[in-house]
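Illustration 12: Lysozyme.
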Amino acid sequence: MKISKVGINLIKEFEGCQLKAYKCPAGVWTIGIGHTGTVDGKQICVGMTITQEKAEQLLRECLEKRYEPPVRKFSGLNQNQYDALVSFCYNLGPGIFKGNLLNAINAKDWNDVAIQIRLYNKARVNGVLTELKGLTRRRDAEAELFLKPVIEDEELKKAVTKIIDSGVQINDASWNRLDRINLKNVPALLNKLGGIDSLVEGKVISNDGVWRSGNYTKENVRSLLIKYASKVG
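Figure caption equivalent — predicted structure in token form:
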């Protein structure tokens, strides 16, 4: 398994990206997306600049070499769990998996893993261990991603087929009644077909992107499913 675009974007959101070398609060020369190693064999120093493409290349190479291997050792992770732990590891270092966190991962107690992740939201400020808002936000984002279920394309197609075969009108109420766990992600499937971001009770989105009164019917969704299947099949 490798980190996905979702995981990369999570890291970028919290690390930021500086294309000109700078010293981090700890006094370490840094560039790109939190990169502190060398760049093409050269030490990072004042005046060094890189491109956005180079920054992302450095991040991926660094993750692959140092921060993904510790996460790959854990069995039974889905993509979201893997991405969340790689982001966590990149922020705190490859030796972070120990103690209660390690025990929770090995026991596959996913709820406890999320709890343990959220505990790492403190840093020393003037020698005092202090909760930092930025770290709290990052830990919350990582914990939420860790617990977010992954539904593959085939599962989504099955979920939509279930709705079609039921013959009911397609709206928020009917989706939720049938199978909330599987169907809550179907709007993401429809979004792939042309900008449908959500299903709204009594509303449909027309070809011109305008919400109008109505319901998604059996035939509406059948048509969408056929289009979707042709794109992914």
